[in-house]
């Protein structure tokens, strides 16, 4: 049995060596990273998973730290209230309940006029 098996292995090993010039040897191509488009009833349907994978960044760019910002870029990244620009939250706070109703900000009611006949009110101690 062992002799038959070794003879069979030897014959199989000799087969490729006996191939003549008319024999075609087909080798499998390396798998490509291409997307397959399928056409069904005249409508093309691309592979969305493949397209999404192609849009992902390379692994070497994902591990790289972000570049340092220049002085001007760092200023631009600051919040608008630090730059003295329009800030909706600050405007709402300044306008109070008059926001969206009036152009004049909310102010406390003016105190009633003081009477010249009554003594001035006492201020609370600090």
Task: Give the tags.
mainly alpha; two-stranded antiparallel ribbon
The number of distinct helices, counting runs of at least 4 residues, comes to 6
How many beta strands in the DSSP annotation?
2
Biggest sheet, strands in spatial order?
1-2
- Report the span from N to C terminus: 112 Å
Mean residue pLDDT: 76
Poorly predicted runs are: none
Question: Main β-sheet: number of strands, strand sense, barrel status?
Answer: 2 strands, antiparallel
- Gyration radius, rounded: 42 Å
General form: rod-shaped
- Which structural class is indicated by helix and strand composition? mainly alpha
Helix content: 25-40%
- Give the H and E element order: HEEHHHHH
Question: What fraction strand?
Answer: 5-15%
Overview in brief:
The chain is mainly alpha-helical. The chain is built from 6 helices and 2 strands; from the N terminus they run αββααααα. The chain has a two-stranded antiparallel sheet with strand order 1-2.
Question: What does the model show?
Answer:
The chain has 126 residues and is mostly helical. The protein has helices at 2-14, 48-55, 59-62, 71-76, 80-83, 88-95, and strands at residues 37-40, 43-46. A two-stranded antiparallel ribbon has the order 1-2. It is rod-shaped. The model has no long low-confidence stretch (mean pLDDT 76).
Task: Give the SSE layout.
Layout lengths: L1 H13 L22 E4 L2 E4 L1 H8 L3 H4 L8 H6 L3 H4 L4 H8 L31
Antiparallel strand pairs: 1-2
């Amino acid at each position: 049995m062992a002799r038959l098996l070794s003879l069979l292995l030897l014959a199989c090993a000799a087969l490729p060596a006996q191939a003549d010039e008319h024999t075609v040897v087909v080798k499998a191509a390396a798998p490509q990273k291409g997307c397959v488009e399928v056409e069904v009833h005249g409508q093309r349907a691309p592979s969305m998973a493949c397209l999404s994978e192609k849009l992902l960044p390379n692994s070497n760019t994902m591990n790289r730290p972000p570049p340092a910002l220049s002085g001007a870029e760092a200023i631009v990244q600051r919040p608008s209230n630090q730059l003295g620009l329009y800030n909706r939250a600050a405007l709402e706070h300044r306008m109070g309940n008059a926001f969206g109703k009036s152009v004049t900000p909310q102010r406390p009611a003016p105190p009633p006029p003081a009477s010249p006949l009554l003594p001035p009110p006492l201020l609370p101690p600090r």
